[in-house]
Amino acid sequence: TIDAPVLSSVAYDADVPKHPLLTEVGSHSTRVEAFRLLRTNLQFLDLDSRPRALVITSAVPSEGKTSTATNLAIALAQTGLRVLLVDGDLRRPKVASVLGLERSVGLTTVLVGRSELQDSIQKHTDSGIYFLASGPIPPNPTEVLQSRAAQELFDRVSQMFDMVIIDGPPLLPVSDAAIMARDVDGAILVVRHGKTTKEQLKQATMRLEQVDANLLGVMVNMTPKRGGKGYGYGYGYGYGYGPDKPRN
Asked: How many domains does the chain contain in total?
């Protein structure tokens, strides 16, 4: 088991590829409810020092981390918070295309001094979230994210916004996401029901532990609809609740 709470679960929804954003579905849909629960449980994680900047990651690709990051940002913005979504996947950035926004200016152009941060942040009109794209893909993503400039940028945006959500790359192929999680308040690990193996989950959590990054919790994606609001029990992963069990 891993010592982290299951913060929410999202049922499989065949409509996601066509309508990936919460703003495109009804306010009472199960997907919207799942992200409201994730938002609520995030707020209960640490009442004295609530996480303000966090990385959404997964063990391996195609687990649903990008849709989780994007929709969590939207759910947070719906409460009136100023939320910045950052595409921190400098290998396979996808958030700009999901939002229908520009990718050519963003994180990497700011870090190398080709653009100013304020000029590089876009606004997604339908949801109200702010967005910092990846920018052009660099030849050395890990070195870019390990740089002092990257740490300073994450510190700066944490001061500018109420919440910063970073869509990071998967944990197992590369160390980028663990580095980012260490530099902010922690990570949420997206686990795809029936796909992520116990070994992958174990290796992913070890990656975070090795750099002293904080694993805030787990989001289970693509659960069977018949399971209703299951929060990870009986999925074959044996998630262990940490000491602070979130409220359902």
From this structure: 1
244 lies in some domain? no
Q: What is the CATH number of the domain that holds 122?
A: 3.40.50.300
- Residue 88 inside a domain? The answer is yes
Radius of gyration from C-alpha coordinates of the chain: 17
Domain extent, residue 99, equals 6-227
139 by Cβ neighbours in 10 Å (0-12 / 13-18 / 19+) ranks as exposed
Average pLDDT, 10 consecutive residues per value, the chain (248 residues): 84 83 82 92 80 94 92 96 97 95 97 97 97 97 93 96 96 90 95 92 94 94 66 36 36
Orientation of helix 176-183 relative to helix 198-210, angle to 10°: 50
Query: What's the pLDDT at 228?
Result: 43
The reported pTM is 0.89
In whole angstroms, what separates CA 139 from the centre of its chain?
Answer: 23
* Phi, psi for residue 86 in degrees, rounded to 5: -115, 130
Which of 67, 69, 169, 153 minimizes the C-alpha distance to 108?
A: 153
